[in-house]
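A further point concerns the way the authors explain their paired sequence and structure data. Showing the layout once, in full, would remove most of the difficulty. For illustration, here is how one protein appears when written out as sequence plus structure tokens:
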Amino acid sequence: MRIPLGAIILIGLVVVAGCSKRGLRDLQPGGPGPDEFMLLPNQPLTAPKDYQVLPAPTPGGANLVDPHPKADAVVALGGKASALTPGDIPASDGALVTQVSRYGVPANTRVALAETDAKFRKKQSVMTRIRLFPVDRYEQAYRREALNPFDKTNRFRRSGISTPSSRPAIK
């Protein structure tokens, strides 16, 4: 019995497609399940020193055992957790914030950016759904948006701009 060449090619393609792996940078949602990175362990419960002097309850406020990962990271790196209070801009950053917001700050920046990015990824992924070999879909979608740091560094150096933090040019 002779097997047609088309059947052999089709079987080969199915076998190769079965070997593909989805990487961490896959742009498709993983499903409706929970996001394990959103789960943070609570601080251990502690008994108050004096049961007669307890703080007043704050409805909707933070719990003493709630995790504070940003504040914990700032403290671990030698900073002050009080620097993270929302709305407070350090005096050293006041001029920067004023300059950046001189044309106004839209209230829905994150939502607008997420919608624009979703449209961009949908447009970019039209032909990337069919793959014979595993590829980095993130790199595919954002290839034209990425900067080549070595080209930019060399361009700045040719124009006479000092780039002290960049490594020497490769020749």
Summary: Residues 63-105 form one domain. Residues 109-124 form the longest helix (16 residues). The two ends are 60 Å apart (CA to CA).
